[in-house]
Amino acid sequence: MIQMLEEGLQAIRPALVGEDGFGMSEQEADEVLDTVRNSDMTIEEIDRYMEENYHYIGVDSYLEEYEYGRADLEETNAWIRQKLEEHPYSWYLARKFTDALSLFVGFGAAILLAFLFLRDTRRDTYELLHTKPVSAKNYVLGKAAGLLFLAVWIWKRRRVY
């Protein structure tokens, strides 16, 4: 955390020193950053301090970027250890797999439904449909219901290894 705070403070340093920024000297900028380093302020308190004393708005965005964006080896391992204590690795893998599978099945169903419409128009069922009292809405819902029924039937018959 200290290293991430330091990187965030170094990111705001050019704005303090630069001519386009606050026009501070190198020494003044170092004093401001040392004040922030030596205090035990949170990111919100640092943002408020910089805004009230130097009219520098948005310091929190620099600091949060470094806080959320990086973790050292110990933090990463601790996070992984905590997650693996909650659930086994296979649980996380299964969730990722089902998330991806649900996207592919959804898109696949839409593509399959489009091909079913094309097949119906090629086989001259278009004229047959217009001679029956079936609305376009009911036709599409029937096709979708049939596809859903097929998907549920396949899902029920699957084997779990």
Question: Secondary structure elements and their pairing?
Answer:
Layout lengths: L1 H16 L8 H13 L4 H12 L4 H11 L3 H14 L2 H34 L2 H7 L4 H21 L5
Could you please describe the fold and organization of this structure?
With 161 residues, this protein is mainly alpha-helical. It has 2 domains: 2-70; 87-156, no CATH class. The chain has helices at residues 2-17, 26-38, 43-54, 59-69, 73-86, 89-122, 125-131, 136-156. The relative contact order is 0.06.
Give a quick set of tags describing it:
161 residues, single chain, mainly alpha
Query: Which class best fits the helix and strand makeup?
Result: mainly alpha
CA-based gyration radius: 30 Å
The total tally of domains equals: 2
Number of DSSP E strands:
0
Strand content: under 5%
Q: Return the average pLDDT rounded to an integer.
A: 81
Number of contiguous helices: 8
Element-level helix/strand string: HHHHHHHH
Low-confidence stretches: none
Terminal CA distance: 44 Å
Share of helix among residues?
Answer: over 70%
Largest sheet: none
Shape: elongated
